[in-house]
């Protein structure tokens, strides 16, 4: 496992940022200065040096503490079917919290499950809790390896790939990079779109990853990888072996009731106007949301819209209203197209 500079903090993120040496700025400057101003090499070096201005190639490692650990454990309220995945990240973070300068670090994770169970929504929520940059790399549209590992500047379109570009642009060494639908990666066998993962998913080789467009090694070993897939059998065995694999099912109706209630409570707690409303969402309203089969990512918006309708009635004095307001099923007008799955998010 990588080690970061030590200091005296423990279980709290220090104000002094933790950094890691990822790029060789001196070599980038040398290559820029020794190349023609209109060449791809010059332009690539110029761009990356602008990303990394005043960093000396040392970029931030996003730290973690016990507060982050607590928020991570609470994710199970909104993603009950991801309990095993959440437990994995909690355990990985607990290891980091033993260090003087804990930072976000996890072994690569692969989530396998049917479309609509909430894989993308969970990954987004995870990155929000951790507070690290999050980028989705759509593997279903990747037809060649240069998407991840770059293309030689000797080609007219030659430029660095999305992996090193993400590190430099965000100036963070340990982002969460999500390989979406890794089982759907396709392309000519000579230009394997996931070929670079053989190196990137192993710490020892990721430390000296050579992007073909950058042509300078970068330390990619701090990256946190998370992949999603529908069908495990379509993933090459050597790639599969590099992941901790989780099979996730759709949430049950009881799970969804808990999720919807949790979302409602969060809305009420996080908004000043929430004091006007009941602390609990009525069962009839919860059931209407479940039966409507709307995409769960829109549940929060739907609830807030219903609250706004009640607020408008109250402000305009159309009728007498007792407080706290009850967000009954009558205020839910769900006009979206039915979702393909009756349960899931």
Task: Give an overview in words.
- With 345 residues, this protein is of the alpha/beta class.
- It has 2 domains: 18-247, Rossmann fold; 253-331.
- 37% of the residues lie in helices and 10% in strands.
- It is built from 13 helices and 9 strands.
- The strands form 3 sheets. Strands 4-5-8-3-9 form a 5-stranded parallel beta sheet, with helices on both faces. A two-stranded antiparallel ribbon has the order 1-2. A two-stranded antiparallel ribbon has the order 6-7.
- Helix 1 runs antiparallel to helix 2, helix 11 (253-270) packs across helix 12 and helix 11 (253-270) packs across helix 13.
- 37% of the residues are buried.
Order of strands across the main sheet: 4-5-8-3-9
Q: Could you say what the CATH topology of the largest domain is called?
A: Rossmann fold
Q: Any idea of the CATH class of the largest domain?
A: Alpha Beta
SS-based structural class? alpha/beta
> What share of residues are in beta strands?
5-15%
Number of domains: 2
Helix count, per DSSP? 13
> What value does the average pLDDT take?
86
Q: Write the element-wise H/E pattern from the N-terminal end onward.
A: EHHEHHEHEHHEHHEEEHEHHH
- Specify the helix fraction band: 25-40%
Q: What is the architecture of the largest domain at the second tier of CATH? A: 3-Layer(aba) Sandwich
The value of Rg in angstroms is 24 Å
CATH superfamily placement of the largest domain: P-loop containing nucleotide triphosphate hydrolases
Quick structural gist:
The chain has 345 residues and is an alpha/beta fold.
């Amino acid at each position: 496992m990588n080690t970061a500079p030590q200091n005296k903090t423990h279980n709290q993120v220090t104000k002094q940022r933790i950094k890691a040496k990822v790029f060789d700025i001196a070599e980038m400057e040398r290559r820029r200065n020794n190349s023609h101003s209109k060449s791809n090499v010059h332009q690539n070096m110029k761009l990356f040096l602008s990303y990394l201005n005043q960093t000396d190639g040392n970029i931030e490692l996003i730290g973690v503490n016990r507060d982050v650990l607590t928020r991570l454990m609470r994710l199970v309220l909104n993603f009950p079917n991801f309990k095993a995945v959440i437990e994995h990240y909690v355990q990985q973070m607990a290891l980091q919290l033993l260090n003087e300068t804990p930072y976000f670090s996890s072994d690569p994770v692969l989530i396998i499950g049917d479309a609509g169970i909430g894989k993308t929504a969970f990954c987004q929520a995870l990155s929000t809790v951790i507070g690290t940059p999050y980028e989705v790399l759509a593997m279903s549209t990747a037809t060649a390896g240069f998407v991840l590992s770059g293309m030689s500047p000797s080609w007219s379109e030659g430029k660095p790939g999305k992996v090193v570009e993400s590190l430099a642009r965000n100036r963070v060494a340990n982002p969460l990079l999500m390989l979406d639908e890794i089982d759907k990666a396709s392309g000519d066998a000579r230009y394997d779109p996931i070929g670079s993962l053989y190196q990137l998913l192993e710490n020892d080789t990721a430390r000296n990853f050579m992007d073909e467009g950058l042509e300078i090694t970068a330390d990619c070993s701090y990256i946190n990888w998370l992949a999603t897939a529908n069908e495990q059998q379509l993933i090459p065995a050597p790639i599969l072996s590099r992941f901790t694999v989780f099979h996730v099912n759709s949430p049950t109706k009881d799970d969804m009731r808990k999720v919807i209630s949790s979302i409602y409570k969060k809305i009420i707690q996080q908004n000043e106007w929430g004091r006007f409303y009941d602390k609990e969402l009525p069962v009839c309203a919860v059931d209407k949301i479940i039966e409507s089969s709307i995409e769960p990512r829109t549940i929060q918006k739907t609830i807030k819209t219903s609250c706004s309708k009640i607020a408008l009635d109250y402000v305009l004095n159309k009728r007498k209203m007792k407080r706290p307001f009850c967000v009954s099923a009558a205020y839910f007008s769900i006009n979206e197209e039915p979702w393909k799955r009756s349960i899931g998010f």
